[in-house]
Amino acid sequence: MAAVSDFAIGLVGCGGMGHRHLRSYGALRSVGANGFKLAAVCDPRREAAEHAADLVEELLGSRPAVFASAEELIASRVVEAIDLVTEPSIHHQIAVPALAAGIHVLSEKPLGVTVRACREMVDAAASSGAILATAENYRRDGPNRLARAVIDSGILGDIHLMIESNIGGDNGVLISPWRHLREKGSIALDMGVHYTDIFAYLLGDLERACGVAFIAEPGRVLAGAMVSGGEVEELAPGVMRATGDDSLVALYETAGGALIQLTYLPSGPGRKWIQRSLHGRNGSMSVPFDRTGGAVVVELGERKLSGAELRAELGDFRLHGVTADFFGPEGTEYELPFAEVDAATIAIELDDFIGALNEGRAPEVDGLGGLLAVAGVWAVAESRALGGFVQIADIADGTISSVQDPIDAAIGLLTKAS
Ligand SMILES: NC(=O)c1ccc[n+]([C@@H]2O[C@H](COP(=O)([O-])OP(=O)(O)OC[C@H]3O[C@@H](n4cnc5c(N)ncnc54)[C@H](O)[C@@H]3O)[C@@H](O)[C@H]2O)c1
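# nicotinamide-adenine-dinucleotide complex -> structure
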């Protein structure tokens, strides 16, 4: 990376993912990447912020300033960029004033809890000229980079169909209670944006969608001391009422004419079904579950290609930059502990953001990319309400928003006058 200065970054939100981001800054430093310093951490939970500051000191050698409020952090002018890792329902509340103050923002996915929230962020960035990036880690994984190269090579021929399935789970809270609260960003949105981003990454823009978003498991069992981010109603002791969708069954059509069948159903203690496959006129490709390092397998009639043979077929495919630093230039298959893979994929997205700051270029996933991923998920519930296919463009520009409107009203983005 051509570093011209050390951008002062502030981490806002020191929960589970905030701490994972910090380990990724440490991982970046360990492969010699520079161009940044962690100047501040911020969380109203003082203990979490202090813990994060300790970790920064341990990993990067200097202790950042600690803030309890994002407003104070923005006003302090201590940072030039914010790494925003709070629950999604408040991303816009923090990002919009930061961007208006000329502070660059990398926001965790989902960019916002609704399309309207995302639009506020995208518009604020456009007005001030500050960079808005969306943190999307799945696409940075070596196998997904290889899958994209396979598609770009054309060896599969025209792609007719992609199947994305993640089915099976239990009735436990998925990571944190806010992921089951409609106005806080449900797990269907939280996970769904990873998939809609992957669809756009592999197959280009989504054009239309129809499907059903629903709550498959209405009572979620709370475990231990979870960060909530919202009030929960208990159906029974230790069991919270889920108000946000946890499941998606949808059909998408891309601008290029490919169909994508998505099933996300993270409950039901039966067999776990995981599949990402693409089916073209000349053959098929299966892509392993994200961050497991399995093989991408291409089947062209009798020919079955993977590993070195597949890379050779693509003209000696290699990973580059920090991706190669973490996984090796041929590291599209790996056996690494999850913590290491997780830190690496997040570090790659952080490095892209830092590169964008230093080079004054757009990040790989910008604000609009994050907005479109959110629109792709909300399109499913909006289509159900309207009883047919919806155009993603109509969701993205706010023409269709009736399902999201009550959420926008609840979080103050939609008043009677607007
Ligand atoms: N890409 C991935 O693989 C991945 C994985 C997990 C989470 N995430 C994303 O990261 C984000 C955070 O998720 P999490 O699991 O860490 O949530 P979390 O609930 O564990 O942490 C959120 C933190 O934000 C803090 N916070 C709340 N209000 C704040 C404010 N006004 N200012 C500063 N801090 C505030 C909370 O106190 C908490 O510590 C979400 O957008 C989530 O979707 C992404």
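# post-check
The first helix runs from residue 16 to 30.
The longest strand covers residues 159-167.
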